[in-house]
Amino acid sequence: MHLAYLDAGSGSLIVQAVVGGVAGAAVAAKLYWRRLTARYRRQRTDRS
Amino acid sequence: MTIPHTDVRTDPGSFRDPANRVFYADGEVLRGLDARAARDWRALSASDFFPPLLAAGKVCGTEAVEPARFAAVAGAQWAAVLRHERIPFVSHPYEWSFGMLRDAALLHLEILRAALTAGFTTKDGSAYNLQWRGVEPVFIDVGSFEPARDGEPWAGYRQFCQTMLYPLLLTAHLGVDFQPWLRAQVDGIPPEQMRRLFTGVRRLLPGVPTHVHLHSAMQQRNADAASGEVREQLRGAGFSRELALAAVRRIERLVRRLRPRHVRSHWADYQRTCSYSAADRAAKERFVELALTAAGPPRLVLDLGANDGRYARLAARYAGYVVAVEQDPAVVDELYAALRADEQRRVLPLVLDLADPSPGGGWRGVERAAFATRGRADLVLALAVVHHLAIGRNVPLAQVVDQLADACLPGGRLVVEFVHPEDPMARRLLANKPAGLFPDYRPDEFARLLAARCRVERRVELPGGTRTLYQAVVGG
Ligand SMILES: C[S@@+](CC[C@H](N)C(=O)[O-])C[C@H]1O[C@@H](n2cnc3c(N)ncnc32)[C@H](O)[C@@H]1O
């Protein structure tokens, strides 16, 4: 995608969870875990 | 009733948030708010946290005025109009010293913390949200407050990093002056540029692993995710107001710990190493004091080449406001600390090279006003600085005189000290240049050029015999 259409702010939002300490890092981890499982589920429905 | 305003203009630096706009009308500072911003303002003024900040002077003075009265000025489209306190002299973050940028950052975070606790937030986190009342930082962007939506991180974090935290890290960790970096980029320093400066063991310096490296990596990995979507995902994963507050508290702790790593400069010891005798200094002080009291109290004094601020402080006894300009960031930082320790409220110290003053910046070069356009002074002090420009920087003497005279309002006063070529300090500068390069650098030629631009009221030779002081009225 062209650079101008990318949202530099998205990453900045997630970092703040990590800056918030252990509880925040857990939130970031959960976000990534949910993205991963969502992708896995999508692949399975695509195949079936 | 509408008041006829003759001098109306929109602040060219306030267009980024379409919900509100700043206007100047006959010396008044006004802010128009659209319907939504007006609602936010009403909630803000009814909140617990905002009125105390206002009363403490941490946020610039603000009151609602009748929009209809200002329709002719601001246009009729605004749902509400606010009137702000006037900041005595506008400055930009690239003119602040390390300590100034740090204290400005801490004030921004303190205000954000108070806002978050009360269910509000700020839309942005830019260093341009702050200005100065002497050595007191003031938060000026009242239009930036809005009710917080639960589960959302601070939208201003990236701007805060780029315009405040990263510049501070440059000076604290690397000993690099941040001012040129901020001056060159209105949006500050992006994380991926910072990342390249902090490699090897520097990766581990305080604040660097998360705010620089992780931040840069996260930006790259999430670049094709819209921020609205990410907000939703964060909320779903349990992000809360407490977490937002915890993040702000940690950033505050980091910023408070940062100390500048300045290269020790020659100028920092100037008052101890300079060539003045006690008699010279006493005569010079008397001369300057008389000039300050020659007419009514000057509203604005510019002290050019202020060094430790000896004469800026003297001026502050008689003037409404003093802007002390000095090129050396380390010297300005010491001056700032000293002024704060003395609770001197009327002197604003700024980092500025008179041979390379701040140009206009941002959109069309007008979003951040150039130094020369930000106001001329009733009285200009140029003490022992002409030789630095004429010899040190090769500026023709006539043009130095023009520059000093142009810094004064018409009818304003110029107090200038000419250091003769035989003076030990001038000789030191001349020794660095090819012999005979400045045939015009003579007391008689300086006197002639000054008389061509001004009416000289008084002159005194200092007892040492190698310095002449002038008091002159510009355009008189
Ligand atoms: C000789 S000291 C004079 C200090 C003070 N005005 C006095 O009379 O005691 C000159 C000061 O001017 C500053 N200076 C020299 N060149 C400058 C420039 N181009 N822009 C701003 N300040 C400059 C130096 O850093 C130094 O602090």
TrEMBL record, chain A:
Record keyword Transmembrane helix present: yes
Transmembrane parts of this sequence: 12-33
Keywords from the UniProt entry: Membrane, Transmembrane, Transmembrane helix
Protein name, UniProt field: PEP-CTERM protein-sorting domain-containing protein
From TrEMBL, chain B:
One GO MF term attached to the UniProt entry: methyltransferase activity
Domain of life: Bacteria
Descriptive protein name: Protein-L-isoaspartate O-methyltransferase
Cross-referenced InterPro entries: SAM-dependent_MTases_sf
Segments passing through the bilayer: none
GO BP: methylation
UniProt keyword terms in alphabetical order: Methyltransferase, Transferase
Keyword Methyltransferase set for record: yes
Keyword Methyltransferase among UniProt keywords: yes
